[in-house]
Amino acid sequence: MPDVGAVLDRYGYVQIDPINVCGRMQDLILRNRVENYRPGGLMRHLHGDGATLSAHERTAFEHHLPGSSVLVAMPHDAWPHLLEAMRERTLHDGAWSGRLSADERKLAKRILAEIASRGPLTSSQIEDAGPSRPSGWGSATLAKSTLQKLYFHGRVLIARREGTRRFYDLPERVLPPATLAASLPSPEETARWLALTKLRQRRLTPLKRNELSHTRDEVLTVRISDADAPLLHILREDLPLLEASREAPENGAPFPPLLLAPLDPLIYDRRTTLALWDFDYTWEVYTPPAKRVRGYYALPVLSGHEIVGHVDPKADVKAGNLNVISRRVRRGHAVAPAVKSLARFLGLR
What angle do CA 278, 282, 287 make, to 5 degrees? Predict the structure, then answer.
């Protein structure tokens, strides 16, 4: 695709993750979809390169998918569908996303006033006169937990980043007026949006009964010959792509091998990956080392129309090398070109 905006329009969102073993998740997803994509391209699209973008210049923003802690980049038309989830979070307890405590409510008033007068701020720039304390995701200052909750509630948004540090600003300085003025959708409209976004993201995936009930007019069912495989669904608009892939000659021009991101939309649904490719894949970052099968950050290898194994790479930035910790690839499939391509993308040997 020509640029990041085109990917967001087609897929609905791109998942963001801070872990950087051999490139960040969002960059590994986008490098296989955007021509001449470079590391950090998604953040530059969201927030600008150097000078921070104004609200009128932005076409996308960062936030969490409703009902989850999954952070993604989304186009502006997603905003109205997040509002009810934001309101719900203010009604329930939660260390990072729930209702504000009495101390947090008091500090929130000062934080919002300071942001209004000073511009985007990070939690370290806010004095809270409180020690770090345990929370759901490790220790946090009162300023950090308050800002995080204000973010989950939609009262501040990420205006820019410096490395992994987030700078928060008021929504009216991040989103254009037309987006903020959009009418609140009905629960049915948001349920339909969520189901269609899931399909746009994964393109071929099982749908739950309630998801299917909201999308029957735009969805087709795909049955795999394996009787134990789940029923899959695609958007009607994707049927020509499915038919073209079935009609492609087996001896046609081969695709170069690709290393897929661990959370790439193509393999995100484990049931689909197993049914289509007989590849039982789990991202093992949070798996205890003794129980890992492929490795901490193993990348599946897509060769033509098959997933043929994995490579577990790790960047040694100081030495300038991309090291392969382990790999297991089906015989007859060369993976060296894909590893070299990733190394060049990261500026490593």
Answer: 150
Among 239, 231, 197, residue whose Cα is nearest residue 214? 197
Identity of the residue numbered 259: L
In single-letter form, the type of residue at position 241 comes to L
pLDDT, tens digit, for every residue of 253-280? 467 899 999 999 999 999 999 998 999 9
CA of 166: how far to CAs of 47, 176, 246, in Å? 11, 20, 45
- Measure the CA dihedral 95/126/44/263, to 10°: -20
Nearest to 17 by CA among 287, 261, 335: 261
Cα distance between residue 305 and residue 205, in whole Å: 17
Q: Which amino acid is at 175?
A: L
Q: Is 173 left (phi over 0), alpha (psi -120 to 50) or beta?
A: alpha
pTM for the model:
0.93
- Domain positions in the chain are 4-182, 186-248, 255-349
Question: Other C-beta atoms within 10 Å of 323: how many?
Answer: 14
Angle between helices 142-152 and 102-118 (to 10 degrees): 80
148 Cβ contact list (under 8 Å, min separation 6): 96, 97, 140
User: What is the DSSP secondary structure assignment for residue 316, as one 8-state letter?
Assistant: E
Q: How many helical (H) and strand (E) elements, i.e. helices and strands, does the chain have?
A: 12, 13
User: Contact 72/13 with Cβ under 8 angstroms?
Assistant: yes
